[in-house]
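User: I'm new to structure prediction. If I give you an amino acid sequence, what do you actually give back? Let's try with this one:
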Amino acid sequence: MGQHRFSPTFVLMLLAGAGAPTSAVAQAERGIWDGVYTEGQAARGATEYGAACASCHAEDLGGNSNAPSLVGVSFMFLWEDRSLGDLFTTIRTQMPTNAPNSLPAQSYLDILAYILDANEFPAGEDELGADLAALGQISITADAPTAVAPTVVAPVAIAQASSSPSPTWVTLGLGGGHFGEVSLAALAGLARQRGPHLFALRSSVVTDFDDHVYDIGLLYGRGTRGQGTGGRRSVGIGLALVSVDGLTGEDGYTIGVPLAVEMSRNGPNIGLGVQGFANLNSVQSFAGAVVTIGLGRLR
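Assistant: Good question. You get back a string of structure tokens that encode the predicted 3D arrangement of the chain. For your 299 residues, that looks like this:
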């Protein structure tokens, strides 16, 4: 399962350009936070899921090495900014893997409702229907849209709101690592988030105080932020220069692939979290887990 989209509001600035105050009213698209399924439908879906899906995706929807997780950050990484129509079509045409499209359409809809319920999206009064066009209008987003009351906004205020800065922060971390034996690990990085997209410059080191490996590289990833909690969950991959001094009998460098998975809870300017990281390379791969502190503009 997987892929991604985005929506502009620049026209408001053009309308406001005449200089007179403008009434700006936010119009939220329909999404999974609007209660698009019922509790009864999710309960039916739990039964259908147990019979047709749990053997691959696990009873708790957490997945395994052969099937992706259907809950949490893994689910949002694959499906954020897509639609329920996309997800329904994928489930119906590809699942179960040994008999795609073998269930009634209503069963697939009920399973979809169960997945939404397992991800703690709110239930509503109407069940999901089989109208693919209608499902295609329901967006999958990590955060509930913020309701904005109608208000009169001057043109300069609209311009300032549209150009609000993206979260940008420094991360420092300390913990344990491994490159042949258990060692000390540390990392430092600079990150920026634009929507779900994360860009980071990161350096990590693992050392046993006799030998060490470290890298510096660029990572791209995707992150989600929890509704109103300041939480951030992210995964990333990139390319890095790796120092392997002393491990090959002489000073040397190689190219590696850095990986990162992080969960954090953030205030406006400071946050705490945990990060697992690794670097895969041809000389000496290494990995670690650290407690992190984030400093900067975190929301």
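You can read the tokens as a compact description of the fold. Here is one thing that stands out. The mean pLDDT is 80.
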